[in-house]
Structure formats: C-alpha cells, structure tokens
Write a structure and sequence with these properties.
The termini are far apart. Helix 1 runs parallel beside helix 3 (71-87). This protein is an all-alpha fold. It has helices at 19-40, 46-66, 71-87. The chain has a domain at 19-87. The radius of gyration is 14 Å and the shape is globular.
C-alpha cells in the first residue's frame, strides 16, 4: 500500500520529504517528550504532553524550514532544545557546517 503525504506549506508534513520519515519524526518527538517528562518527574497529563508535542513541532519547523537541517540532525538535538524551551531558556541552532549524528 502506498502512502501519500498531502500537505500545505504550513504543515509539519510539508517539511518531510519521504512518508517513511514521518514515523521517524513521530518517534523522535515521542522519545524526547518521554525523556523530558521523566527528567522532570512530571505528572503526565494530556495537556502537558500536548504542550511538549507543540514545542517539538515548533522546534522542528524552525530547524527544518528555516535553518534547513536534515531530519537526523534535528532529532539528535531535539531533546536539548526541548529542554531549553520547557525551562524558558534561550537557545539557537548549532552553527557548525559539519555534523556527525549524536556528536552533540
């Protein structure tokens, strides 16, 4: 069965070139959210999960759409940038041109 991703320019899927990447991005969001909830020892509520998911979408759109990072690089940095957003800290994308997965 073929999967067709249809989107408008404003959507998350418009920034994903292959349908298979959508699952990878979704799992990256999930893992980052679960890790952040565990580190915070937070009560898991629908509202809190949605808030963190929305932050992940915001970060992804910025890094993919504006900065033109690849999906792997975004997901590698997502936990760090999500933490900064949750804590209200400022952050900016790493400016290195050369990047190796999980090199921080």
């Amino acid at each position: 069965m073929d999967i067709i991703v249809r989107s408008n320019d404003n959507s998350l899927t418009s920034l994903i070139s292959e349908p298979a990447q959508l699952a990878r991005v979704t799992m990256g969001f999930h893992d980052s959210i679960v890790m952040s909830l565990a580190l915070d020892n937070a009560t898991v509520t629908d509202a809190e999960v949605k808030r963190r998911f929305d932050l992940c979408v915001k970060i992804f759109k910025l890094l993919r759409g504006d900065v033109k990072w690849g999906v792997a690089r975004i997901l590698d940095y997502l936990p760090e940038y999500l933490r900064a957003e949750i804590d209200g800290d400022s952050w900016e994308p790493d400016k290195r041109n050369c990047w190796i997965p999980s090199d921080g």
